Amino acid sequence: MKLASIFLLLIPLCSADHIDGVIKKIRNHEFVVDQNVGADPHSGYRRGSRQIVYQTDTIFEQSAAEDLRVGRSVDVIGDPVGRSRVRARRITVYEGHRPVRMPANTCIIPTTGPPAVCPPK
Question: How far apart are CA 69 and CA 83, in angstroms?
């Protein structure tokens, strides 16, 4: 019975979309993202524009709605609404390779790519 309960709780989480890309346009409580900008055209990563809608209950991690600017990178988790629209649950806005409001003395340890970026001690 416990296993069935856990499975039923996870079903809504499994339908979430993960969008990574660069902001192209911004409007009132929504923005358009160019998804997977650097993806190889022969890879399985989906390219295209996605419209992201956020509401008062959307969580901004180490960033805020006022940090959304054309050209900045974003990482979004949300629920699909149609083919190209997503209602955001969580948004992180990046400037360079760091979340906009990340504390200055924080060390970034990536899982892939270049080595960790840490502030001098």
Answer: 24
Q: Which fold has domain 14-37+45-99?
A: OB fold (Dihydrolipoamide Acetyltransferase, E2P) (2.40.50)
Residues 6 or more apart whose Cβ sits within 8 Å of residue 51:
30, 31, 32, 33, 84, 85, 86
Q: Cα(first)–Cα(last) distance of the chain, in Å?
A: 52
Q: What is the pTM of this model?
A: 0.76
Closest by CA to 53, choosing from 83, 78, 36, is: 78
Beta-strand runs (E) in the chain: 17-27, 30-35, 48-53, 59-60, 73-81, 85-95, 98-99
What is the residue extent of each domain of the chain? 14-37+45-99
Contact in structure between 43 and 37 (CB atoms under 8 Å): no
Q: Is 3 helix (H, G, I), strand (E, B) or coil?
A: helix
Q: pLDDT band at 8, cuts 50/70/90?
A: very low
Q: What is the mean pLDDT of residues 14-41?
A: 89
